[in-house]
Write a structure and sequence with these properties.
The structure is a single chain. The protein is α+β, with helices and mostly antiparallel strands. It has three domains: 81 residues, Irregular (Photosynthetic Reaction Center, Chain H, domain 1); 35 residues, no CATH class; 67 residues, Photosynthetic Reaction Center, Chain H, domain 2, CATH 3.90.50. The chain is 12% helix and 23% strand. It has one helix and ten strands. The strands form four sheets. Strands 7, 8, 9 and 10 form a four-stranded antiparallel beta sheet that branches. A two-stranded antiparallel sheet has the order 1-2. A two-stranded antiparallel ribbon has the order 3-4. A hairpin with a 5-residue loop joins β8 and β9. It is extended and about 85 Å long.
């Protein structure tokens, strides 16, 4: 027998290679299962058929995540699909046709104004404070000396008319950077 040979047909390198292939296939299957925790099961537009679009591997059982503050969240949601009405209709009479808003897309949450349903509470830092806060409430944060301080500057719209004045800067406490500008408008 040769060095490293387990039998006349297998050696250590070959067994290690097969073990790696099995591990890698298992890793891919596990990752594909875990990425199906959001947005599945997909919905079929064929109303006459009850088709469950999930692919391989199947959608995993709901998993409970414990968040800070004792809150728990399950994914995928056991309640099923989002029940909000969609204010849009298909552009064509075929499956998979793009949706066209039936009203104002920015008010109807369609297209660029669409959003995912999330918990109605702010993200918090590890010590429980809101993650994003105005500069006036965040001691230790300031605008860098090299940058202009936007507070007090005029804000202009696309019509080149003044829309208001920057009242405050909102910063992200976890990633020290400016997230939003609070603007005071003339009307209130």
């Amino acid at each position: 027998m040769n060095i490293g040979a387990v039998t006349g047909y297998f050696d250590v390198a070959q067994i290690a290679l097969y073990a790696f292939w099995i591990f890698f296939a298992g890793l891919i299957i596990y990752l594909r299962k875990e990425d199906k925790r959001e947005g599945y099961p997909l919905e079929s537009e064929r109303s006459s058929d009850r088709v469950r679009v999930q692919g391989f591997p199947a959608i995993p059982a709901p998993k409970t995540f414990r968040l800070a503050g004792g809150v728990t969240v399950q994914a995928p949601r056991p309640s099923g699909r989002d029940a909000r009405p969609i204010a849009a209709k298909p552009l064509g009479g075929y499956l998979g046709a793009p949706l066209v808003p039936t009203g104002n897309p920015l008010l109807d949450a369609v297209g660029p104004a669409s959003y995912a349903e999330r918990a109605d509470r702010p993200d918090t830092t590890l010590d429980g404070r809101p993650m994003i806060a105005p500069l006036r409430l965040t001691p230790g944060f300031s605008v860098a000396d090299q940058d202009p301080d936007p507070r007090g500057l005029q804000v202009y719209g696309a019509d080149r008319e003044p829309g208001g004045t920057v009242y405050d800067v909102w910063v992200d406490r976890a990633e020290p950077q400016i997230r939003y500008l609070e603007v005071a408008t003339p009307g209130g």
